Amino acid sequence: MEMTSGQPDSTPPQTDSTLRRAASVLRDAPVHGWVDISAAALSRVRAVGVRTWPLDARYPDEGVVEGVDVDADTLRVSDVVVRIAVRSAVAEVAGTEPADISLYTEGHRCTGGLVTVIAAYGTDLQEAGDLVASRAAAALTDVLGLPYSADDIGVVIAEIDAPDQATASTSPS
């Protein structure tokens, strides 16, 4: 890879090879203390507390194995993980942008959610709301392993983005 400056080549060939050699040496040189810096950064990140609430998740593998009833596996998933999954699923709905994700819980069991979105001007709000609810329910089902439907999700259109005013006429009257 050659280094170019966009200027006509007035650099003597000897200087060009010197620059290449210097760049190579810098790339290969170890940075002393890098491990210490990265360890310090990681310890600071780990020290930041994030409040989470554990939610019951269930993965039904129910059935009979060799004559013995098999219960579903259970575990707990952080509400932060669930919200991220719902936000990612809802972000795929055209004409909307998720603004807030709330989860309804009874103890550690998630019973549904409320998704607040910002819609683009001209978006079919009924269709967008239905899609947001079904995508959010599918995300809850995927992450928590329990069956959720669009009826378990409330959708609030908090704001409608106005069209770009930059193209509007601003002639003085």
Question: TL;DR of this structure?
Answer:
This protein has helices at 13-28, 34-47, 79-90, 125-144, and strands at residues 54-59, 63-65, 68-70, 73-78, 96-106, 109-120, 153-161.
How would you describe this structure to a colleague?
The chain has helices at 13-28, 34-47, 79-90, 125-144; strands spanning 54-59, 63-65, 68-70, 73-78, 96-106, 109-120, 153-161. It is of the alpha+beta class and 173 residues long. The chain is extended, with a radius of gyration of 27 Å. The protein has 4 helices and 7 strands, in the order H-H-E-E-E-E-H-E-E-H-E. The protein has a domain at 54-60 and 70-161: Alpha-Beta Plaits, CATH 3.30.70. The protein has a 3-stranded mixed beta sheet with strand order 5-6-7, with helices on one face.
Per-chain topology:
Layout: H1 13-28, H2 34-47, E1 54-59, E2 63-65, E3 68-70, E4 73-78, H3 79-90, E5 96-106, E6 109-120, H4 125-144, E7 153-161
Parallel strand pairs: 6-7
Antiparallel strand pairs: 1-4, 2-3, 5-6
Helix pairs in contact: 3-4
